[in-house]
Every structure is written in structure tokens, then in C-alpha cells.
Amino acid sequence: MQKKGKPLFAAPRRGIAKRYSIEGILELLDAATGKSEPRRYDFVHMPGGGDSHAGLAIVNFVDATSCRTCYEYVRDLQERGSLPGIKSIGRSRVQGFAEQRG
Predict the structure, then answer these.
(1) CATH topology of domain 9-97
(2) Which domain of life is it from (predicted)?
(3) Taking the C-alpha atoms of 45, 48, 49 and 51 in order, what is their torsion angle to the nearest 10 degrees?
(4) 33 vs 54, 57, 61, 96, CA distance in Å?
């Protein structure tokens, strides 16, 4: 839940190959933002049902710096060809819990 006065930042990942599980996405996020405690993201959702997902992950970061760091990390891996199976990463149109409830 959002703390008063603290904005949250969301970055969806699209075109995720079916071989990626939620655990794999969490490992990627941890590698991208550093294995710090607390984690630099507080929400990850992969829509779908059962053992499958819709090829989308929605991640909510705790601050803009963490979001930017992850974005740059993933883009660098993509440019080097080291991250097959994730087609795009971008900014969500709706940012933060308060805006969604709005």
C-alpha cells in the first residue's frame, strides 16, 4: 500500500516468453536492482491462469531510481543479446496505487 506522499513507479514488461516463471522474473529484478533488503520493488503481477501467464509482468518499484536502474539493466542485456524472451519494457500509463484508485 502506498504511503502518503511517497509516489510509486510501475514498469510493465511485455512479450515475456512462456519459459519465464514469476520466480525467474523476481531473479531478474533482484539482479537489476541489487539484492538489497528491503527489495526495490513491492509488487509484481503476471496476469494469466494456472501454470501459464499472458506474456506480461507488471512491476511496481518503490522509487524512480530503482525503476530507471532496472530499465537500464534490462535494456543493456537486450542490446547484448543476453536476454532472449523479453521483447519490451516500458513505463505504465497509470503510476502508483493512489492513481489507480482515483
Answers:
(1) Alpha-Beta Plaits (3.30.70)
(2) Eukaryota
(3) -80
(4) 24, 16, 10, 19
